[in-house]
Amino acid sequence: MNIGLIAHNSKKTLIEDFCIAYKGILSKHDLYATGTTGRRIEDVTSLRVHKFLPGAIGGDKQFTEMIIRNAMDMVIFFYNPAMIEPADPDVGTVVQACDANNIPVATNIATAELLILGLGRGDLDWRLSMRADDIL
User: Fold this and answer.
1) CA-CA-CA-CA dihedral for 40, 65, 126, 22, to nearest 10
2) Of the listed 60, 73, 99, 123, which one is catalytic?
3) In angstroms, rounded to a whole number, what is the distance separating the alpha carbons of residues 53 and 56?
4) What are 63-92's pLDDT values in tens digits?
């Protein structure tokens, strides 16, 4: 499965810790992230991450394009609603694209843990058939 990981600057440490905690599950999937987030995840976990440009210079748009193409199976986007900076990726655009394509998305640690544990159990395998249907 293709798993998207994105985090605003104030949540980079949280996504690193999340990926360390769930490295065993994440290692079985293809990971995609904006540039800085992806590099930081690679540094702390040694997982391979397909990196887009940094979010502030277009990586968030590349990330969203993959969602719009229905090529992402799950997205974890940690953001701080109290500290959104103008250069931060737009959470609304990402969530809206996920909703339009029935892609599970988590914007906080509680929901992210539910999704990742479900991923580990195979609860999200239905996404594979959805992507296969789009290709036909």
Assistant:
1) 10
2) 60
3) 8
4) 999 999 999 999 999 988 777 665 555 678
pLDDT mean for each 10 residues of the chain (136 residues): 94 97 98 95 98 88 94 94 66 90 96 97 88 51
E-strand ranges in the chain read 2-7, 30-33, 49-51, 74-78, 105-106
Sign of CA dihedral 61, 136, 120, 43: negative
Domain range annotation of the chain: 53-70+89-115
* Catalytic residue flag (residue 60): yes
SS3 74: strand
d(CA 12, CA 31): 16
